[in-house]
Write a structure and sequence with these properties.
Distance between the termini: 29 Å
Largest sheet: 3 strands, antiparallel
Helix content: 40-55%
Structural class: mainly alpha
Radius of gyration: 16 Å
Bound molecules: manganese (II) ion
Number of domains: 2
Strand order of the largest sheet: 2-1-3
Strand content: 5-15%
């Protein structure tokens, strides 16, 4: 069994002007694709060859001999989740169940925004920021490099990629601007609501 690059949930220019088709070409077409190919090469004839992506992540997360497999498997999963965390005409305040859960857990949307921006902006070097469900509470966390909320047994609801390759072509070094755009114009609350169920 081998993994395939999952289809993007929209056209590659659908997030313009916020994320260019050029960024998607590199980020999805080169980076995400490379993680899929690397993973397939690493699990060929390996005992995990027929495991699900989630199982590969969980099994290799704390195994120092499987760092390469973990990194590529987690990056495949994280990127697929990230593409779905955005949509054309997304962004702004949440609606539905996620809105009330955010109010309960953070004491209001503005507090959530503050926490999410801080987590995403202060992840030193490459990594991810996440909105997750941890038992009955929603939390914001950040992870370094390929590390994933999946590996931490948390239920991911949304994520943002803050590796430089996610924003450098469009925003150069201005990561905070990219985070603002993600929240104001891209974030897909329908996806977060679906993940809550
Ligand atoms: Mn990326």
């Amino acid at each position: 069994m081998s993994f395939e690059l999952p289809k993007l949930p929209y056209e590659k220019n659908a997030l313009e002007p916020y994320i260019s088709a050029n960024t998607i070409d590199y980020h999805y077409g080169k980076h995400h694709f490379a993680y899929v190919n690397n993973l397939n090469n690493l699990i060929k004839d390996h005992k995990l060859e027929n495991s699900s992506l989630e199982d590969i992540i969980l099994v290799t997360a704390h195994d120092s001999e499987s760092v390469g497999i973990f990194n590529n498997a987690a990056q495949v999963w994280n990127h697929t989740f990230f593409w779905h965390s955005m949509k054309p005409n997304g962004g702004g305040k949440p609606t539905g169940k996620i809105a009330s859960r955010i109010d309960e857990s953070f004491g209001g949307y503005e507090n959530f925004v503050k926490e999410f921006k801080t987590a995403a902006a202060t992840q030193f070097g490459s990594g991810w920021a996440w909105l997750v469900e941890d038992r009955d509470k929603l939390k914001v966390i950040k992870t370094a490099n390929a590390n994933s909320a999946v590996a931490m047994h948390l239920k991911p609801l949304l994520c943002i990629d803050v590796w430089e390759h996610a924003y450098y072509l469009d925003y150069q070094n201005k990561r905070p601007e990219f985070i603002d755009i993600f929240l104001n114009n891209l974030v897909n609350w329908d996806f977060a609501n679906k993940n809550l169920k």
